[in-house]
Amino acid sequence: MAICADAPFVTPPEVSPRVGPFVIVTPAHNEETFIEETIRSMVRQTVRPLQWIIVNDGSTDRTHDIVASYAARYPFIRLVDRHRQGERHFGNKAHAFNLGLRQCDVAALSFIGNLDADIALEADYFEKVLQRFEQDTRLGIAGGMVRTRIGDQFISQDVALDSVAGAVQLFRRECFEQVGGYRPLPLGGIDSAAEITARMKGWTVRTFPELCVLENRRTGTATAPPLLSRVKEGRRYHSLGYGFLFLCLRCLYRAMDRPRILGSLAIFIGYVRGLVSRSPILLPPDTVQYLRGEQQAKLRQQLKSLVVGKPS
């Protein structure tokens, strides 16, 4: 898959004439290792955002300098510096994203998107995503299938098709406004909270597997080793209101994901820690009720499939 090849830079249109203007916001904290690849894949897009706002979120490395050098060359790139205190956590990402979005006239936009700072895209990625929105007026959140670098390979996240990885979520503006945007949740899950709420309000949420996205670092591992990040992932599932049975079966289903067995065990431990300590569930009760209803429906569907598929 050829991404970020050393081809000449081009000047594509910065607004899709069919579906209207969009902006992308990228919170970036100490991303000097990967952000230049992300930038190079963005400037090669056949359809660019009206603005790409990169929020330098208190970085102490060369992130600011790298982004500034490209912003000076490409007018659609805008650098915003945010000064913050404290350690890296997912609440900061929401605050940084919201700061970036405040630089725009949101009412004039058709779409609003998040792009993580360690992502590489095919040149026609946004053109194709916008085509999907044009074809379905109830499509509220869309994105491609993320393949994450693990070791020397890119492994598909294999997300459910009614979910979109937070690294590449693109919202129809009306949907974004109805879900209340990204909420600063300290344990993460800002993307999950948005898409659960979107589905609850009747919007379609969809990942398109044919649109491939490369992620250079697994989400949540920037400051934590893989197993600890999985424990945090389990705590996050509890904070979002995941049902216990669904979580257990999900751990079994994902047991062969790397790190095999131990990864799922770590997620389970994190969830149980949240359960036993009675950590608060951070989503509204009606949203949690909807989520658990979705999960129960999926479990019933899986059980039905097993029964129907069982030989007589």
Percent of residues in beta strands?
Answer: 15-25%
For this structure, what is the CATH homologous superfamily of the largest domain? Spore Coat Polysaccharide Biosynthesis Protein SpsA, Chain A
Shape: globular
CATH arch. level architecture of the largest domain: Alpha-Beta Complex
Structure description:
The protein has 312 residues and is of the alpha/beta class. It has two domains: 22-215, Spore Coat Polysaccharide Biosynthesis Protein SpsA, Chain A (Alpha-Beta Complex); 226-309, no CATH class. It contains ten helices and nine strands. Strands 1, 2, 3, 4, 5, 6, 7, 8 and 9 form a nine-stranded mixed beta sheet that branches. β2, α2 (63-71) and β3 (77-82) form a beta-alpha-beta unit. The longest helix has 25 residues, at 285-309. The protein is globular, with a radius of gyration of 19 Å. Mean pLDDT is 90; it is low at 1-10. One of its GO terms (molecular function) is glycosyltransferase activity. Residues 24-155 form the Glycosyltransferase 2-like domain. InterPro entries: Glyco_trans_2-like, Nucleotide-diphossugar_trans. Belongs to the glycosyltransferase 2 family.
